[in-house]
Amino acid sequence: MIFTCPGSRILIGITMSERKVYIETYGCQMNVNDTEVIFSILAEAGYDRTENIEEADVIMANTCSVRDNAEQRIWGRIDQFYGQKRLREGVLTGIVGCMAERLKDKLLESGRVDFVAGPDSYRSLPAMLSRISPGHPQINVELSREETYSDIKPVRIDKNGVSAFISIMRGCNNVCSYCVVPYTRGAERSRDPRTIQMEACDLFSRGYKEVTLLGQNVDSYLWKGVDGHPDVDFADLLSSVAEISPELRVRFSTSHPKDISDKVIETMAKYPNICRHIHLPVQSGSDVMLEKMRRRYTREWYLGRVSKIREVMPDCAITTDIIAGFCGETLEDHQDTLSVMREVGYDYAYMFQYSERPGTLAAKHYPDDIPPAEKTRRLNEIIALQNELSLESNRRDVGKTFRVLVEGPSRRDPADSCGRASNNKMCVFPATVSGGTVKAGDYVDVRVVSCTSATLICERV
Ligand code: SAH
Ligand code: SF4
Ligand code: F3S
Predict the structure, then answer these.
(1) Mean pLDDT for the chain?
(2) Which residue in 157, 165, 161 sits closest to 405, CA to CA?
(3) pLDDT one-digit tens code per residue, 267-296
(4) Residues 6+ positions from 198 with CB-CB distance below 8 Å
(5) Spatial distance between the Cα atoms of 176 and 413, rounded to a whole number of angstroms
(6) N or C: where does the chain have the smaller number of CB atoms within 10 Å of the terminal CB?
(7) Tell me, what DSSP letter sits at residue 256?
(8) pTM of the predicted model, to two decimals?
(9) Nearest-atom index, ligand 1, CA of 356
(10) Ligand with smallest separation from the Cα of 319
(11) Residue 105 has pLDDT above 80, yes or no
(12) Is the pLDDT of residue 13 over 50?
């Protein structure tokens, strides 16, 4: 018996040839987790995952809009995907994620994609795929006030089965003037804490040793209690996940300097398995810029939060995001950024040139007036300083002993293994000592013997 159905090409008897789906993921960790959600939704509908674009029936990019260069890369990929369509009849291509949400039908106008799906519409993907026909692409870019995909068990795409992401909330209610995220991800909503705990427990029972709780602003996580149950805030959630097992490490990102509470900092200190690392984006060291960016804190407030963290957890790493060349940034503002970096002594930083995003408050109200070459010059100064700071930070760790969660073989030398210390620094150490070889997911104790600005070189203890 031969018959066809929308979820597969040809079904012969009961031997199904499943349709294969290939996803390229761009942007932040939340997008990585969303890709895992999409794989799960599509698996339910009979689609198999492939990492080989050439055998895929459905090809998509899960996209990022945070800076213009992120989007330009995707336009290039759309052309490549289109090449696959022309080579093989029946291949469907699509754009999902933040760029789908921002550009909507403009993506369809290119005539090169069959579907466009925003971050809150992934449940509709199987139906959308089955409705596509020549000349009839599908689009769903509706944002939701409720969707958290809390009942979906993500299909993990990490390579080693050690560390996984858990989205604890979606969207963002801040309106940082430069940022497109509130427009692409919609309003903030928190996920039921019981489903978060269950997901973490399930991962731990499957051998995972580390979970990273994700949100654009985790400090504003709030689950309203009903029927006499108390509210659950981020600190409560952290404790409940940390209590699953001392063998399960807990990380989180991103903290907002205006919202990170003493309760969160003190909760971290209480649990050795909550990792000693806070990603606390400063964006700029100048109060004038911070005001224009609508970050809603001052430099003084920010430094106060850093002091609190250091007072409670002297060994806690602090990392940051910085934007160079925001609208009207003077040389003095730029110097303020360099000086705040020195004052905090960041362990690591993600550094960007300001990229104007259409529709944001900054795009509407402030001219993007720093010439590109000057933005680059300032960014380079910031990067050079951070390289020094990272090296200094790593040198401070030489001689210290850390417990490391092994991720796998080191890329440079397969005789070495690598893994992260609680402070998120990458450690490299011999895989084998006195006959025993470590494997991904083991905890090992190491002593730092030397370093580069990126890595701690360690011996086993
Ligand atoms: N929710 C997180 C970060 C989200 S975007 C937070 O509030 O920190 C990640 C980083 O991208 C931001 O911290 C910022 O440094 C950078 N970024 C966002 N919009 C940008 C823009 N228009 N141009 C350059 N960098 C930008
Ligand atoms: Fe963007 Fe600000 Fe929200 Fe972060 S907190 S996602 S920078 S609007
Ligand atoms: Fe990019 Fe969207 Fe994340 S714009 S940074 S993928 S939330």
Answers:
(1) 95
(2) 161
(3) 999 999 999 999 999 999 999 999 999 999
(4) none
(5) 43
(6) N
(7) -
(8) 0.95
(9) 22
(10) 1
(11) yes
(12) no
How many other C-beta atoms lie within 10 A of the C-beta of residue 151?
7
Shortest-distance atom of ligand 2 to CA 216: 6
Tell me, in angstroms, the distance from the centre of ligand 1 to residue 448's CA: 33
Q: Which residues pair with 24 in a beta bridge?
A: 61
Ligand (nearest to CA of 182): 2
230: helix, coil or strand? coil
**How confident is the model at residue 4, as a pLDDT?**
38
Pocket test for ligand 1, best of 176, 258, 341, 352 (most atoms within 8 A of CB): 352
CA distance 125 to 103: 18
- What pLDDT is stored for residue 17 in this prediction? 58
- The answer, yes or no, to whether any atom of ligand 1 lies below 6 A from the CB of 431, is no
193 C-alpha to ligand 2 centroid (Å): 22
Residue type, 407: E
> 38 alpha carbon to ligand 2 midpoint, in Å?
24
| Cβ–ligand 1 contact at 357 (below 6 Å) | yes
Res. 11: pLDDT tops 90: no
DSSP states along 361-388: HHHHHS---S-HHHHHHHHHHHHHHHHH
Q: Mind giving me the DSSP string for 268-304?
A: HHH-TTB-SEEE---B-S-HHHHHHTT----HHHHHH
Cα 361–Cα 364–Cα 367 angle in degrees, nearest 5:
110
The Cα 16–Cα 205 span in angstroms is 31
Read off the tokens for 427: 């450690």
Q: How far is CA 194 from the centre of its chain?
A: 22
In the reported structure, the alpha carbon of residue 66 is separated from the centroid of ligand 3 by a whole-number distance in angstroms of 6
Of residues 366, 325, 324, the one with CA closest to residue 177: 366
Phi-psi group of 435: left, alpha or beta (phi > 0 → left; psi -120 to 50 → alpha; rest → beta): left
Report which ligand 1 atom has the smallest distance to the Cα of 281.
Answer: 8
Give which of 361, 260, 232 is closest to 316, Cα–Cα.
260
Which residues contact ligand 3 via a Cβ below 6 A? 27-28, 30-31, 64-66, 97-98, 180-181, 184-185
The CA-atom distances, in angstroms, between 373 and each of 259, 324, 325, 377, 379 are 35, 11, 10, 6, 10
Say how many Å lie between the CA of residue 440 and the centre of ligand 3.
Answer: 29
> Residue 413: what residue type?
D
Q: Is the pLDDT of residue 432 over 60?
A: yes
Please give all residues whose beta carbon lies within 6 A of any atom in ligand 2, as ranges.
Answer: 172, 174, 176, 179, 181-182, 216-217, 256
